[in-house]
Amino acid sequence: MKRLLTPSWIARHVGAVALVVAFSALGWWQISRAVAGNALSWAYAVEWPVFAGFVIFVWIREVRHTLRGDSPDTDSAPGPLDTAEPARPLAATGVAGPVGAPADARGPGGAAGIRRPVRAVRRTTTADEDPELDEYNRYLAWRNANPDARISDYPG
Question: How many helices (H) and strands (E) does the chain have?
């Protein structure tokens, strides 16, 4: 519970209470206008309490997330770029190898519960395959090299 009593959390609590009170007051104000004959205010009389409910929903969600704390799927867990550990070969990390690879090539533990890295294959086209695509790529390269130029200045 001490995590919810830090200065930033106290500001969040005060902000949430202030928003709920303000949205509730605006809803009550719209109800009084609607009763006085403004038909459009009935929609706003429903809308403001919905906003207050959303603030309560987000506040509860953030409190639960903070109280959950050190679970491995929190945002405070180091990402792949934050680790200080040097890169290891795939066999040493236990990451599964290609489909159909022998079990010893998959590393210790096999593929159970470990994600494989995504390998993207880029296919390049030649002028024989798609000349319109090549012309468009030249145009985009020219636009990238000349960001201040007008489209009518393109030499192609």
Answer: 4, 0
**pLDDT for res 19:** 97
> Which tokens go with 98?
């290609």
Kindly report the length of the chain.
156
Maximum CA pair distance of the chain?
A: 79
Residue 43 lies in a domain: yes
% residues pLDDT > 90 (the chain): 36
Q: Is 95 exposed, middle or buried (0-12, 13-18, 19+ CB in 10 A)?
A: middle
18 contact partners, CB below 8 Å, separation of at least 6: none
- The verdict on residue 86 lying in a domain is no
Parts of the chain with a pLDDT under 70: 70-114, 124-128
- Domain housing 7: 2-68
113 belongs to a structural domain: no
Domain count, the chain: 1
Question: Is 33 contained in some domain?
Answer: yes
Give me the amino acid identity at 34. Answer: A
Q: Residues 107, 96: contact at Cβ < 8 Å?
A: yes
Q: What is the pTM of this model?
A: 0.44
